[in-house]
Write a structure and sequence with these properties.
By secondary structure, the protein is of the alpha+beta class. The chain is built from 10 helices and 8 strands. It has helices at 2-10, 15-28, 44-56, 74-89, 101-107, 125-130, 150-153, 176-189, 204-212, 214-217; strands at residues 62-66, 93-97, 111-115, 118-123, 137-142, 159-165, 168-173, 194-200. The strands form 3 sheets. The protein has a 4-stranded antiparallel sheet. The chain has a two-stranded parallel ribbon with strand order 1-2. Strands 3-4 form a two-stranded antiparallel sheet. The longest helix is centred in the middle third of the chain and has 16 residues, at 74-89. The chain is elongated, with a radius of gyration of 23 Å.
Length: 223
């Protein structure tokens, strides 16, 4: 509570308003029962929630967040993301930097991809994904014990590349209907049961790699 009141004083929020806002934020971030405890004994996720609460104490119109959920537990991630969404719905403009591309996809209305300090693309997530039709794919999983691999699936007509993702295979193609037909033919001819099959559009990770290159993506690109 003292941390939030201190932040409110810095932002010149009058005492009555900052105390009411502090209680509201502590409740929102699930910390109201710890309002009189010293922050030094808090977990990393709880400290991050306090830091964001301090940034919100003056109800800002513009909020900058630098990797707010990096390295946090699942519960803290959920609480922080929902709080940020709520602030945005109320009219706050949020600039969010993150290396977590899926987080950017879930949280942001517009995404800028930065590579080596330069913005190389900026648009709505769905528009960025439309830029690479070649990243369309089919994801399939077969019954346990089925003997198949990337090399065999890569021989299916219209399939350009195959990667294994856990117990699933992802087949990249520019013609998903043809690839689907080929997968079913392959399964029937080899006596293999298909447990799950889905068509997938390009992901933001596909866009990032396409724009920056795999090697560059590992060298510090941000979204």
């Amino acid at each position: 509570m003292e941390n939030l009141n201190f932040a409110g004083e810095i932002y010149h929020v009058v005492k009555r308003q900052r105390e009411a806002k502090a209680l509201e934020l502590l409740e929102k971030f699930g910390l109201s029962e710890r309002k009189d405890d010293k922050v030094g004994g808090f977990s990393k996720g709880m400290k991050r929630r306090i830091a964001i609460s301090m940034a919100l104490i003056n109800s800002p119109r513009l909020l900058f967040l630098d990797e707010p959920t990096a390295g946090l537990d699942v519960q803290s991630n959920i609480v922080i993301r929902e709080a940020v969404r709520e602030e945005n719905r109320k009219g706050t403009t949020v600039f969010l930097t993150t290396h977590n591309i899926e987080e950017a996809n879930q949280m942001c209305h517009r995404i800028a991809i930065i590579n080596h300090g330069k913005i190389i693309a900026i648009d709505r997530p769905e528009n960025l994904r439309r830029t690479i039709k070649s990243a369309q794919s089919v994801q399939v999983s077969f019954e346990e014990g089925a003997e198949t691999g990337e090399a065999e699936l890569g021989k299916i007509p219209s399939v350009r590349r195959v990667i294994k993702e856990g117990h699933r295979f992802r087949l990249f193609t520019e013609d998903p209907p043809a690839a689907l037909e080929g997968i079913w033919d392959y399964a029937r001819s080899h006596g293999i049961r298909i447990l799950e099959i889905n068509t997938l559009g390009p992901t933001l990770e596909d866009v990032f790699i396409n724009l920056t290159g795999t090697a560059q993506a590992g060298a510090g690109g941000r979204s």
